[in-house]
Amino acid sequence: MTEPINMTIRLTGITKSFGEFRANDAVSLLVHPGTIHALVGENGAGKSTLSNILYGLLQPDAGTLEINGRPVTFDSPRQSIEAGIGMVHQHFMLIPTLTVAENIILGGEPAPLFAPLSRKRVHREILELSRRHGMELDPDAPVSTLSVGEQQRVEILKVLHRNARLLILDEPTAVLSPPETERLFTALRSLAAEGRSVLLVTHKLDEVLEVSDEVSVMRKGKLAGTMPTREATKGSLARLMVGRDVLLRTDNPPQQAGKAVLSVEGLGYVTPDGRAKLNDLNLRVHAGEVYGIAGVEGNGQRELFSLLWGTYDHSARVSGNISVEGVSLIGLHPAGIADIGVSMIPEDRLGCAIVPEFGIEENLLFGRHRERTFHKGVGFDREKVRRETKRLIGAYDIRFSGKLNPPISSLSGGNQQKLVLARELERPGIRLLLLAQPTRGVDIGAIELIHKRIIEARGRGMAILLVSSELEELIALSTRIGCIFEGRIRHEFSEEAVRNGRDHASGFEKEIGLHIT
Ligand code: ADP
Ligand code: MG
Prior knowledge:
This protein has helices at residues 47-54, 77-82, 100-105, 116-132, 148-161, 178-193, 205-211, 234-242, 301-308, 334-339, 349-353, 360-365, 382-395, 413-426, 444-459, 471-477, 495-503, 505-514, and strands at 9-18, 21-31, 36-41, 62-67, 70-72, 85-88, 166-170, 197-202, 214-219, 222-228, 260-270, 276-286, 289-294, 317-324, 327-328, 342-345, 375-376, 379-380, 432-436, 463-467, 480-485, 488-493. By secondary structure, the protein is α/β, with parallel strands linked by helices. Helix 4 crosses helix 5 (148-161) and helix 14 packs parallel to helix 15.
């Protein structure tokens, strides 16, 4: 290594517009060598835009970049890579059929990919780098056989192998389990200790406080503040992010649970090509209870929900039973399941829960068009529909600008989700609510309201099954928590354990982590 590893990056007055919209507005940022600098902000605050400008993927309309006091411009990532900047994207860009080593050299150097000499050298370099930073990997393993956490390690090693001195990681923990997150943080600390800099883009405040040295907060395209992390608190960061005080903890009073509403017994699911996704899964959700399912994605959560909602692959082999107050759901179609009082907020909001080009009114009353109360003669009672829409918009704080009934695609993710929740919670006769990742891609302000409405629904005696990859959310909302691993509930935390855990949150997350990996 000839160049020094220390690099100071200064961004001054970075401005970037997409059409009329200012995604970055005069943002200035200083990243010191040997530090982990967290960049936080709500969805849409402009974090990815700023990262992409630093990486040369986007060019700013105004503003300057300096490395060690020298002005630089990047027309493409090739130039930023040469200058010592590396980026690990939110979505990995690996080729699954190639090995770890092949992916790491791909596009990185002119040497032929399979030349034996360079291959040997690259192997040695990869092993050395991965050991030094606690990111063990087999250079010969095909990427398709790796877990998500391991794939991320490949991305990081790829960037390090090109000798990046500033690493940008955009929401790296979104796809990781708690133990994987811990390992990532250990690796990042080791990189910083070596003198490299890390720009960690995230929206999770606990992570910022745990791992970063400095933190910058963005709000609506502007820099809302920068400070040493030891001077920051969760409350102060949330306030900078949202622009007002935020309730960070949903009030979750104890409640007596009622009769069993959902019973899942000995549930098995084998895909048509023979992979077992659920394996003797048992759980029970009572009235007035939120049952949270903790787990790393891909351990059967999706298959369970597809069975609960009647959308599973009918050529799969299903065994066991699912019933709601004694009525079996297996074989019922989604409309039939909805009719017996089951509501669902699916993970894929855009694909399953709304029709983007329709208006708010239509989207709010989907599935409710059969209710007598909205009928008048042979048509709809427009006046009643309008009144109900207005009530729900108010009660769920659904925000939009301008027109009376704009297409729902013009709403932000958080407002779309509030609308889906309003519709699914307000249908009459709901006994069971199924929630899959209810606040994914939703901003803090909307999360606050969604959590409140979920607790209220529980208070009215609804039985709620919640799957979330955010442990913080599970702990905040759940009465009991079941840890899913390889298609079965491997461990269940009782009501008392969850209540105690809520009061000592950080230790509890680690405890849950032990049962899901
Ligand atoms: P963050 O990463 O903080 O969630 P982004 O930087 O991705 O935010 O986006 C900021 C805003 O800029 C968003 O409202 C987004 O819709 C908009 N935006 C981002 N990229 C583009 C683009 N290529 N074209 C148009 N709008 C964009
Ligand atoms: Mg982003």
